[in-house]
Amino acid sequence: MNLKDVLLCTGFSLALPIGQTLFKFAADNNARLSGPLVMRLITNVPLLGAFAWYGLTALFWFYILTRVPLSLAYAFSIVGSGLVPLVAWWVFKEPLDWRFPLGYVLMLSGFAVIMTGQRA
Q: What pTM was computed for the model?
């Protein structure tokens, strides 16, 4: 992979936890809304933002896949998905214990194995 492709894939992996954070804000906001479900959905601004973010990241992903093999590009999602619990701890004060850093190190080790074994 060239540097541009690595940066694109890294950017996408960082977009994933942002989207999950927006959905969590939307879920918290939903608890404060009242009325019929449809009205809560269309008036939940964080939810609309989360959907817009996922739409943009889907287009971004499509562009990445025009340049990078899926098997290689998708490995970068390991990096982003491991960041979601860290963001949950930091932003939403959700608990984390010793298993998180251990598991994330294992995930990143797997990512390193995948990246050293692939050729684009």
A: 0.83
